[in-house]
Amino acid sequence: MASTDRSSMSVSFSQLVHYTLPPRVIPLVISMGREQEARIVLEKLHGSGEMEVEFKEIKAQILSDPAVESTWKAVATKPSYRRRALLTMAVAFGVQMTGVLVVNSEHFSA
Hints:
Layout: H1 2-20, H2 26-31, H3 35-64, H4 72-77, H5 79-98, H6 100-109
């Protein structure tokens, strides 16, 4: 039982360390005007060939985002947004009602 407690503590410590480090969210870095830093990160992820294509796609998405209406009113009035919201709520409700968390916690606590 002590080994189980120790391993769960190490996972928790690992999560704590990762949650406290600031993430490198490339669209955020680009929108802050630090394009060179974003290019360096993209090059590490994709290589030099695909980096420029990915950079241009992210930049185009950043420019088009303000044009998209993202309010609760839009969720209520646009059928496509309403459908996505209802599907999301249905999936979350289904997961809660199936008792998956209870089964998993019973399985791993033994």
